[in-house]
Amino acid sequence: MLRTFLISGCMLVGTTSLFRLTRRVGRCIVRASQKTDSSPGIRGKLGEISPKYCCVILEGKRGFFLEERREGAKIAAGKLTCFGGKVEVDEKPDDCIIRECREELGWSPGIIERAVDLYVDGNLTAWFYVAKAPVDTSALLYEEGRFGVWISDSKDPRLSDWHRVVLNAWSKGLKRADFYSDTSTHT
């Protein structure tokens, strides 16, 4: 049976074991399809711990729209990554994505949906959301030292290792991506 609940300004629509969460953040709509059971690889229990980072997979007709990190960046210098960053204290992960897009691109996605959870060496590290990329990327107002590039698939050698793992998982329809620092023990 399909049910609709309104909890703390959020609308839950679905059955008792699977629901779709929809809420407004400014002009953005946040959706998260989540199972309420403990199925392996799928997180979504209410009250779960948020990750340290959140990123967004921006999809468009030309493929994926990614950030090219400057050579002096502290993390993934000279590599391509999804836009996003560190979740601030008392910030919700989906609010982090919207803030990061505004800061890094001068733009906000219309609808974001949680897509892939990244685990590094078995530890939850980041939630990746998916959204439609801006149609006209030439009009974006990039944060100093940042700019965007289009790639057609996850085989681009400029991709950071974490983001390659996530894009591969996303393209296969997986909700979890695992990255291991020492690949010799996890082949």
Give the key terms.
disordered N terminus, mainly beta, globular, 187 residues, 2 helices, 12 strands, 40% strand
Structural account:
- There is one protein chain.
- This protein has 187 residues and is mainly beta.
- The protein has helices at 93-105, 161-171, and strands at 3-7, 10-14, 18-25, 28-35, 53-60, 63-68, 80-81, 83-86, 111-120, 123-132, 147-151, 176-179.
- Strands 1, 2, 3, 4, 5, 6, 7, 8, 9, 10, 11 and 12 form a 12-stranded mixed β-sheet that branches.
Topology:
Elements: E1 3-7, E2 10-14, E3 18-25, E4 28-35, E5 53-60, E6 63-68, E7 80-81, E8 83-86, H1 93-105, E9 111-120, E10 123-132, E11 147-151, H2 161-171, E12 176-179
Parallel strand pairs: 4-9, 5-10, 9-12
Antiparallel strand pairs: 1-2, 2-3, 3-4, 5-6, 5-8, 6-7, 6-11, 9-10
| Main sheet record | 12 strands, mixed
Global Rg: 17 Å
Proportion of β residues? Answer: 35-45%
Specify the overall morphology. Answer: globular
Short description, anyone?
With 187 residues, this protein is mainly beta.
